[in-house]
Amino acid sequence: MLPLVLTGCAGRHNWLASAGAEAQAVEDLFWVLILGAAVIWSLVIGLAIYAHQTSAPRKEPQARRFIVWGGAALPTLVVGGLLIWGMVILRDITAKEGDLTVRVDGERWWWRVIYDGPDGPFTTANEIRLPQGQTTLFRLTADDVIHSFWVPALGGKMDMIPGRETSLTLTPLEQGNWGGICAEYCGGAHALMRFDTIVMPPDDFRTWLAAEAAPAEIAADDPGWQVFLDEGCGACHTLRGTEAQGPVGPDLTHMASRERLGAGIYAMTPENLSRWITDTDRMKPEVDMPAYPHLSGAELEALVTFLMSLE
Ligand code: HEC
Ligand SMILES: [Cu+2]
């Protein structure tokens, strides 16, 4: 069992290598719990061995004092202290006003992400970018079933519940791409419901936010755009600023600027995108998007070139 458990201690999902203030707070509590438990366990076992080896009789008042202080007062103090500490951490990671607010909606099996842009809120998907050193308040909802939002390296997880809003704050301290996952079993493709959390310098973040908020840039005579319209992709997907306004699937306005495809599971390359369109359910079993195996070679190529131009 041990090697299996220890495999969790590497890579970008490692919550013991915290890269954010909230993860650090939980990690501190974790180490105090583990080391404190080790000390208390050693003490108890030591006393048991000692009691076993000495045969000198104890006086009753002395024994009673030992039980009251060691068996009742000390545990109450320790557990009560840990409870208060834990509740302070819980308050800090769930309800702190942030420098910015991001809404995330869990869908089967991807993430709708809503930012407050320079000109009001706009929607994107499957990739969350955050400014380093600033606190973000996440307002979390779910569309269909319960999901759970978790970026292990940055902070604790939080359930996303249909019909209710939960919240979580993250203050990333280190730049990097800290993976996120759905941490509540939500159906067939649950294990393939991931996202990238990219922490960048605040200036770069603002530049990215402005670019991401802009509408899609499309040449009206792009043959791939024609395929997109003819095949009805726009019934489910939105390209902001165009007639494609489908609310069912991820927003594709700037999809090529994302690092990954299919909710954080494949690199964003033309080859993967092409297979995504023709073999959708083989790329992601149980996916809620139809496959388009009937497209001709030329149509597929035009469509992929068009999608990869959506930066
Ligand atoms: C019935 C609705 C529906 C239609 C029609 C549809 N899609 Fe999708 N699409 C989805 C859903 C839902 C997802 C999210 C799947 C997931 O990750 O679980 C998705 C995901 C995608 C993604 C990945 C997005 C990302 O952020 O990783 C791309 C690219 C895509 N679709 C392109 C297309 C194209 C091109 C067409 C037309 C040929 C199309 N879709 C037609 C529903 C649809
Ligand atoms: Cu989920």
Mean pLDDT over the residues: 94
Assigned CATH architecture of the domain at 223-308: Sandwich
Strand % is 15-25%
Q: Could you tell me the number of beta strands?
A: 12
What report would you give on this structure?
The protein has 311 residues and is α+β, with helices and mostly antiparallel strands. It has a domain of 86 residues: Immunoglobulin-like, CATH 2.60.40. It is built from eight helices and twelve strands. Strands 3-2-1-5-8 form a five-stranded mixed beta sheet. A five-stranded mixed beta sheet has the order 4-10-9-6-7, covered by helices on one side. β6 and β7 form a beta hairpin. The site of heme C has 31 residues, from α6 and α8.
Fill in the keyword field for this structure:
311 residues, alpha+beta, Immunoglobulin-like, five-stranded mixed sheet, binds copper (II) ion
How does the SSE layout of this entry go?
Blueprint: H1 2-6, H2 21-53, H3 60-94, E1 100-107, E2 110-117, E3 120-125, E4 127-131, E5 136-142, E6 147-150, E7 158-160, E8 166-170, E9 176-182, E10 194-200, H4 202-213, H5 223-230, E11 260-261, E12 266-267, H6 270-278, H7 280-283, H8 297-308
Parallel strand pairs: 1-5, 4-10
Antiparallel strand pairs: 1-2, 2-3, 5-8, 6-7, 6-9, 9-10, 11-12
Heme C (HEC) binds next to helix 6 and helix 8.
Pfam family, one: Cytochrom_C
Domain Cytochrome oxidase subunit II copper A binding: 97-211
Catalytic activity: 4 Fe(II)-[cytochrome c] + O2 + 8 H(+)(in) = 4 Fe(III)-[cytochrome c] + 2 H2O + 4 H(+)(out)
Quick take:
The protein has 8 helices and 12 strands.
